[in-house]
Write a structure and sequence with these properties.
Length: 77
């Protein structure tokens, strides 16, 4: 497990051994896990996104493009 990105709006965790990425939308309290081709697409798109300076509105728009996979409520253990 590796924390890739920690921001007040979004948290991204990489699970290399499982070829998976977990994305948490902190605003909505929703989380999703992507594997395989979807994880690869997210990594690619997120890498491009991070390569340029972005503002909060652009980050919110980026998160929204993956909202369909963030289908689980965040729970505390």
């Amino acid at each position: 497990m590796e924390v890739v990105f920690n921001h007040p709006l979004m948290y991204v965790i990489e699970y290399p051994a499982q070829d998976a990425v977990e994305v948490l939308d902190k605003r909505a309290g929703r989380v999703g896990v992507m594997r395989g081709a979807m994880a690869q697409r997210f990594r690619h798109d997120f890498g491009i996104f991070l390569s340029e300076e972005r503002n909060q509105e652009q980050l919110e728009e980026f998160i929204a493009t993956f909202s369909a996979v963030m289908d689980q409520p965040v729970s505390r253990h």
